[in-house]
Amino acid sequence: MAAATRRLFVTRPRVIVPLLVFLLLLILFFALTPVYTDLLFYRSVNFSKVFTTVLWTRVLLFVLFGAVMALAVGTNLVLAYKLRPTVGPLTIEQRNLERYRTAIEPYLLVILLAVSAVFGLVAGLSAAGRWRTWLLWVNGQPFGIKDPQFNRDISYYAFTYPFQRFLLGFLLTAVVISLLVAVITHYLFGGIRIQDAGGGQRVSPAAKAHLSVLLGLLALLKAWAYYLDRFGLVFSSRGVSTGASYTDVHAVLPAKLILLFISLACAVLFIYNIFQRGWTLPLLAAGILVLSSVVIGGIYPAIVQQFQVKPNEASREAPYIQRNIDATRQAYGIADIEPEAYDAAEDITAEQVAADTGTISNVRLLDPNHLTRTFRQKQQIRGYYGFPDSLDVDRYTIVDENGERVTRDYVVSARELDLNGLSERNWINDHLTYTHGRGFVAAPANTVVDGLPIFQEGNLPPVGPLDIDESRIYFGEMSPEYSIVGTRQPEIDGPAGQGQDDNTTSYDGSGGVSLGSSFNRLLFAIHFGDKNILFSSDITDDSRILYERNPRDRVQKVAPWLTLDGDPYPAVVDGRVIWIIDGYTASNGYPYSDRNTLGEVTADAVTGERGNRVQQAANQVNYIRNSVKATVDAYDGTVTLYAFDEEDPVLRTWMRAFPGTVRPSSEIPPKLREHFRYPEDLFKVQRDVLAEYHVTNPRDFYSQADFWSVSPDPSNPERDQPPFYVYSQLYGRDEPSFNLTTPLISRRSSKLAAYLAVSSDPDNYGQFQLLRLPQGVTIEGPAQIQNQIETNAAETLTLWRGGPAGTLQTIEGNLLTLPVAGGLVYIEPYYVVQANSATGFPTLRGVAVAYGNKVALAESLQDALDEVFGPGAGAAAAGAGTGGGGGGGEEPTTPPQTPPATPPEGGESPPPSPPTGGGGELDPALRQAILDAQAAATASEEALSRNPPDWVAYGEAQKNLADALARMREFTAAPEAPTTGPPETPATSPNPSPG
């Protein structure tokens, strides 16, 4: 029995060791699988340089900083052990510790390696995450601009200073951990004793020398920290504005210099203590350091701030506010934007409005944020196709029926694959058979017929003037996680024609990664957690797997140094569907520039509310440029990065870090450049900054009297109104252009203060127009105009909503603020949709126009303009068509709508038009709510008409108005219908399980 036991213990290592090795190799294989699949992705898009650069940079930082930390901790642990006293007093404390020393002595080497490895591993992993900081420091390019305080190039603050701060933090951590390890080791081995043995010496000379050196290093690092703190003052928030204030320059800056020398003196005292008995000098040095930090670094600046700055703050801070203004305007790219006086005439005539054809004839009646269900109902074609929650706006130049080239803005979308529309879901259907969307849909934004868009580009097979050669969408915002193409299963390709069965196709593009080897199939089976990839007999040597298919995610992966706009959009370029994504280079290291949280200033009523409008992360920035335009081919997934702002030093730095990944601006195809839009997120950041930094006089800036705000969204007052792309003629321009626009309101009241627009046309891309409205004139902001429309047209809206029964629901479209004929006009489309209907879809019912105190809600834009300005005012809008109730519009000048090739199953007609006259008595409570709303609106106008305006009365009237409108909605509101489309039965019957 004993012999058998001995044999078991002898042979057990022969079994256990190979098993442990196998388990470690298996864990390593699973851990490295996502790394290798990432490498395969980068190779497939020809960006392997990005993968290797990031990988080896992270490895370098891990090894370098991990080794330094491990070496520092291990060295101090060994020193503490080597410097242990050979003979010590036999106190009770030491007798107790002797048991621990005896127990760990045989494992000292293991403990040394383990402790060093743990701290080194943590430090290495932390440093590896700072690869961006390292690459910016190593590759930093000059800005060519120097800060006004220290006369250093901006690149020092953007690239070098963050790395120095990181390095300082790392060294402080290393010394503190080394000090703690040394103290514990000295105590364990008798170098430090808590109990006095009678000689009065609790710390051995060797231990005191060791600890004194470490404390001296801490003091030296503190001196370096004070040195860096001086430069950090350019980001100070102590004063009225960002950057070094009067107190910072005249009190804190000298204090930091004094504290620097005190820290150096303390370091000398710590080192000198090696040769002295006791701890008097170290305690004195620590006391001096703490006391001076409180008095010189805290109390003295507070006294200067309170007694020198506060009584004369405007004059004291003026030079530093000016620094902040200049730096902020430069850092956010708004230095050249100057407000332009705009009288906003209150007496424009019908003839003047009719003559403004550049704007009136192009008014956007289709709201891309509300028409997804309409596109789905009219252009879905098959249940397995779909459209994103929010559509896009772009412009196209086409030849009309008269042979003339006409440019309009269009509401556009790719027709993407939507697997939720399949009635039979299985692995083959989801990943082999239904692999792609197909087609591109475009409707002029200014034209409707019977309340519906005119789909000039659409249907399947594709029909329209855009001449699309490749309409298949393998890479899109709705694409599934992965699809496998080139298999034995045919891919469904949509209908062959009207009333015909589905076509099939086989992918012949270069996108994706080959599954020709069993090894690759195993890797991707592990990566996606799907065994079918490994075992399916439908996958052949020619099969390819498509993954990372969302255009934004695809670009983010190949350019991890970019901040991407939240709204990629599709465009037809040279016969192919191309996704365009705007890329930003951003920094929070621009001295004196005001910092903003990107996620907050870009949030509005649309972002985050709809699946394809991504909200930015909560990153702090104080410098931003739209330096890159990225494209993704919807068919083969090719990613291309174009330098758009080649003067941007941050872009030049990243191009040096990742050479060959960004193409020069000269290589941008002209056809592609025609579809570049000024990006929304950048515009939202700039409008938020301009709300304050249009004020360039430091005294006016200090008073904040002329600060503006972004208008709250009329339909969601808790969030900002989004900017709108419109094709309009800007004030003082000869031709219309494709612009991104927004109104700005006064921060002290809700009245309109300014109108901001920027052009996206290639010839004047990025040119801003900022119209400042006269301060003595009260022009209501969007939220108040919305209330006026709801009040003045209450009875009409009630009838449109089907009366008190609420059989229909109205949807307010984009409330546009437009400079027209020297005045300011608000225009808002109204849609109706069947309430409580899963298949109902919005149709245009009418258009509201507001100008001054005049408000009209009519069935067409032409009628509404005529009602507000007089007969003939809407002549330029005659081609815009009519709402669902008909009447008022002329025959559209665009080609008629082509019916869908195969209408979706379970479709529903547009909602019937409610009566336009008095179709029944209103509920008495509803009628009273309408009267109360009208009275409150009149009271609001009277309060504003007083000189000066009575803001207390105005606020009370607005409160009463909101209460009345809420009571009205109780009678008319109805829940919005679900937006899911009808399910689709697969056109073929593929094998429901892998072969």
Distinctive features:
single chain, 995 residues, alpha+beta, five-stranded antiparallel β-sheet, disordered C terminus
What does this structure look like?
With 995 residues, the chain is an alpha+beta fold. Helix content is 42%, strand content 17%. The chain is built from 27 helices and 34 strands. Strands 1, 23, 26, 27, 28 and 29 form a 6-stranded mixed sheet that branches. Strands 16, 17, 18, 21 and 22 form a 5-stranded antiparallel sheet that branches. Helix 26 (924-945) packs antiparallel against helix 27 (951-972). The longest helix has 43 residues, at 2-44. The protein is globular and about 110 Å long. Mean pLDDT is 87; it is low at 885-920 and 972-995.
**Spatial shape:** globular
Strand proportion, as a percent range, falls in 15-25%
Summarize the biggest pleated sheet. 6 strands, mixed
Q: Using only CA atoms, what is the Rg? A: 35 Å
Per DSSP E runs of 2 or more residues, the count of β-strands stands at 34
How would you classify the helix and strand content by structural class? alpha+beta
Number of separate helices: 27
How far is the N terminus from the C terminus?
54 Å
- Average pLDDT level: 87
Helix content: 40-55%
Report the uncertain regions: 885-920, 972-995
Write a concise synopsis of the structure shown.
The protein contains 27 helices and 34 strands. The protein has 995 residues and is of the alpha+beta class.
